[in-house]
Amino acid sequence: MSNPRYLTKSRFKMALECPTKLFYTGKKEYPDQKLTDTFLAALAEGGYQVGELAKCYFPGGVDIKELDYETSLAKTNDLLKLENVIIYEGAFQFENLFIRSDVLVKKGDRVELYEVKAKSYDSTTDSLTNSKGIVAKWKPYVYDVAFQKYVIQNSRPDLKITAYLMLADKSKVASIDGLNQLFRITEDDRNRTVIEYNGDVSPAALGERMLCTVNVDDICDSLYSDLPFEAGDTKTFRQWIHFYADHYQNDQLLQGALLGRCGKCEFKTTPEQALQGALNGYKECWERSAGFAAADFERPHILDLWYFLKKDTYIQNGKYFMSELTRADLEAAKPKPNLDPGLSRVDRQWMQIEKSAENVPEIHFDHSGLRDVFAGLTYPLHFIDFETTAVAIPFNKGRRPYEQVAFQFSHHVLYEDGRIAHEHEWLNSQRGIFPNFEFIRQLKAALESDEGSIFRYSNHENNILTKIYEQLRVSGEPDRAELCEWIQTITHSTSNSTSSWKGSRDMVDLWDWVKKYYFAAECKGSNSIKAILPAVLNNSDYLKAKYGQPIYGSSIPSINFNDQVWIKLDDKGKVVNPYKQLEPVFEGIDEDLLDELVLDEAAEISDGGAAMMAYARMQFSSMSVTEEQRIRKALLRYCELDTLAMVMIFEDWRDRLSRHGG
């Protein structure tokens, strides 16, 4: 007997993203390219620790571990016969709807429903709503708990349901050390996640509560009203629930609107899957809704246009291809002249469109612009890269949920005579410590011996250092004044800083230079270093000749490589991306999928997801010494390649300038 096709809370969330996904999901013939290893995703986000901590705040509950519908429903119903009971993962079914709730607290005929989310919330200042309604970033979580409450109160009308979101409260400060080390995460022999307690987890022993509860009953009541779900909608929230449920139950396709979100569709096939006969849900949507033929999928699509925020508007108006756009389409409503050196946003977008239309492989290289900025550099040049995370449950007493944690850096030096060396690296793999202050001490020691210019790639390093500055400023570290003063010399203040400054040695953003002075069509609009590096290598005879020899880790000092040859060609004569030459941090999982979970503030750079998850695994999950050493080695090699990639980009540019008069 096949399982019933219930609309669950995860499927409801999927339907709200795009209803067509309900037809594709769970079918082997439609491969799902999203990260399938939910263990790693939740581990990095802090979901397991936060979920388990929530249970500890409601001790004595019964955990319903059975996964099948029938058994979990029967056990839940039996427990609800008790006058008072706490249930973890309680199951409820109403018609063709099914949910599992994180925590239920029953007292008589009153039930408190807690949906636990590993998301940060300041209980003193934040709100789920504003004058326009539900705050956009909270909508998925509010809709989730509203869906659950709807199912419970309709399946059990005899109970009075009060619903809450339970969130990591960033206004709280941990009152004990080692809170996050109380929860050890592992997988059993059936690949199910198991939480092992590592000490006393009674509410009294846990100290200050790190999670807050936010009542959502009023929001739920407004959603359950007869008003349209969204402005201009034809259905109410309740009607949409049953509309989606009925279509899913009957396996009927709902065609969603084509929008910019389609670029991130997980139901695309890889070339290998296509050869094996797999169906491509993404292509089917464009064939049905836009009449695409096979050749249209080869044309440069508007979805691939860099940083174009008007994709929805043009797609809805039937403009799908870059060739259909004019330069005026790219301009803001009130365009301003570009007074800064280099390419503007519109310049870069238009260049992408023109080079895509012409199918011209030539790069754009601004000799004049780069010559000007090169003139302001001081040798030796330093190239640094950080790996960071934000831990849900604090490491130490005095720390807050989701504070930034810097756990690794790599440092290359390029001397004026052309010598290159990977001179320093640091990686904290010690469990349960807050590494930021030692990170700064080690970074300072690596960089303070001269006044050479320091390169970073994106705003990330500056943002992290300014956050550590604020952490240090209020700490009890004996050298805090010295460290804060040094941080100010290599950074500039941000809008969140308590004071204003611009350091005499403020770091240079190589990412900013890439956007202003360099363009390669093969990057397809991406400015990620993982896209820029192979483009630079493919277009540089100088780098091909140099790094086609086994010099890296021999004549060029390296901490993690020996006699490495970086230039390897595929069957089309293109350079194999050096990142693809490394052993993966997690076997069997594409690092690109991990990186897509981690976007920078401008949603442009998505690197570092694998490192973040690896660090979380080293900190919070049980693993063998061999596995820990393997992950540590992979982390060190990846971070070293990040700073080497910066060096290679700079070397190519310096070579081009030298061949054009300096």
From TrEMBL:
This is DUF2779 domain-containing protein. InterPro entries: DUF2779. Pfam families: DUF2779. Residues 382-528 form the DUF2779 domain. It comes from the Bacteria. It comes from Mucilaginibacter glaciei.
